[in-house]
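for the writeup, i need someone to sanity check this before i put it in the appendix. the sequnce is what the collaborator sent (i think, or maybe the updated version? ugh). structure was predicted straight from it, no edits. if anything looks off just tell me and ill rerun, i have time this weekend
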Amino acid sequence: MASRKKAVCIMSGGMDSTLAAYMMQDEGYEIIGLHFNYEQRTQTKELEAFNAICNELNVKDPYIVNLDFFSQLGASALTDKSIEVPTGGIEEGVPSTYVPFRNGIFISLATAIAEKEGAKVLVIGVVEEDSSGYPDCKEEYISSMEHSINLGTKDETVLEIKMPLVHLKKSEIVKEAVERNVALDLTWSCYQSEDEACGLCDSCRLRLNGFKIAGVKDPIAYAQ
């Protein structure tokens, strides 16, 4: 009997990466959940969301990787408490919530896990059009990483990076998630609060607008 195909899914606990994991499970992949604690402001809540989603998807033995490097690096409102999370609307250019080369580092570590586990696929929930302008969410960049990781692994390791949401708008993500019965109430998107979502940061604004356009009520609580 052939072994089941495996997918390493980078899962933040947010709506996008959660939907991506559901999509891979629907395609028959065994999900290997991978979450990073990188000293982000909402680390505790994101980990709680990840664990709940893994339980919902029956993910066995998920990986939780601690990276305190990012807090040492700073340079982002997500990891440096001296930089305020912007709440005045979408910023021009690369926003202050961008964490330098985060996805590149995440993909590199996911590659090591995929090679160990014999997975053929890495999954990342990047969204190009509706993202906040992060350079490491671009399809061209992620595709170039796929080429690089295959150059740097064993000959028998052939990995594909799937980004099933990359061309979707946030409203389309909401609709797709509802159609697939994704547990959206377990997901967390807020950049700065862990009890009630602030409703004001870029991530909250993008999420709320997506739900509004989709005509669906967001099941999580917001302060405003």
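The CA atoms of residues 6 and 119 lie 5 Å apart. DSSP finds seven helices and five strands in the chain.
thx in advance!!
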